[in-house]
Here is the input.
Amino acid sequence: MKGNLTSLIITAIIILLVVGIGFFAGRSKTSRSSVEEWSVGGRRLKSLLVWFLIGADVYTAYTFLGLTSSAYSGGSVAFFATPYVVLAYPLAYFFLPKIWKVGHAHKFTTLADYIKGRFDSKIFSLLIAIDGVLMLIPYIDLQLSGIQDTLRVAGTGYINITLVVILSFLLVAFYTFFSGIKAPTYTAIIKDILVWVIMLFMVVSIPIIHFGGWGNMMNAAVDQAPQMLTVPYHGPKGMLWFSTAALISAMALFMWPHTVTGVFSSKSAESLRKNSIVLPLYNIVLMLVTFLGITAFLVIPKGTDPRLAFLELIRMSYGGTMQGLAYSTIALASLVPCSIMAIGASNLFANNIYRDFINPKASAKGMTLVTRYMVFVVIGLALLFGLMFPNALISLQLMGVSGIVQIFPAVVFSLFWRNLSKEAALSGFIVGMAVVAFQYITHNNFGAYEGFWGILANIIVLLIVNPIFVGKAKERNNPVMETLFHSSAK
Amino acid sequence: MRAVIFVLALIPFLAQLVALPLVNKIHPLILGFPLFHFWLLIWMILTPIFTWFIYLIQKSRGGFDE
Here is the structure.
């Protein structure tokens, strides 16, 4: 099957335009003058930019393609993502300002930095860093497979897809290396404007094209596929799965290395608070797009690969220019988030692995360079794994959210609970990870989201172990605890 | 006041995670959405209002650090 030349050209132009903006964003030399400038923009970003840094992460190629394909094959279970992205922010409202405050006072750029300062433990910090990098690289690969699928449908017969994927990721690595956090911030603005305009246009026009309107489409769905409009009560993906998946994903959102980077870039705690209040509304497009997965089920030929359901629906509905605009939006939603993900992972590598364990005497200038060069290592590793062992990655990708959320008790509880001991937080984390791993190995989730059982075990162990070490925890005092618990007593 | 904040914070979670079996239905269709999806949509709008109330309470009491 031949691709579509018009849509391929439009995709190429828009990607190049955004790459240009990525470089332009860092034209000032300060952007790369220090780790703090490069990775968290000198902690000077205003509310509006923070909005895009912590809000735009939700709109990735993986969410568009993943949620529509899961709605296409499983119906309404895919809508777990709606409460997920809504509830992530009221949670964030309570703990992000605190994380920001310690981060600001002690110049942290990663959560592993915080753990090291809070519990005086480089080993604990190392485990958090490894967990972050290990879960993030497969996540970057999910984006990579998003752009691959898009190019495959649009460009077959015209281009060498693997080559184009490698080239576009290298361009992203270069502009991230050059501009630092400014690159994903400014490119995210363009991406999100395109996402809103194009996706809303599709949500309105696709039902009109195939059914005459949204109401008619819904009636057709009620007639032809009522089982897709509610969530089943039993089975591996029923109601319990839906609720626990939403809760765990919401808890996990700000545990990701790249979302934390956005948090630390903020100018003030107040701006994080205000953003957290309003951001749930921003996700309405995501919910409406998920419906298009059900539309695809009604419209496209049965037996289409669910991965390609959304792309197929777009191709059948439009073709030509509009297909090009839609595909380039998805391609951007794949490339743009990789930039901030690479920054998050590079910080972990450089600070919590390289400086703490390999070269403790690294100078500030040396650290800046190491952090920046790590972008190529991270994106290179993602490309290597993504292109060479796509199958080996699948289990890690599935583990992503469940694995990253296991740091939640150590990170968030310790912000509020002075006498939480290092030993309790660490044993909870380890047991939680083990429980998650066990479920993936045995392929049994006991009807709930894997990370849920992990978090449950994590917290129970933490509560049992803490009384044993509470004496030690009471004696512990350090600058980070001073910031958290002393100033607030005033 | 801490109790009020706690309740305001808890309600959106109960509505969107625990109460779902009560609304897991297609009919009535509201504004072109099955009841289940309409419920999720409404809470997307209500959740910010709840958080905003919490913000107002905390602000009027002069402190976010508790």
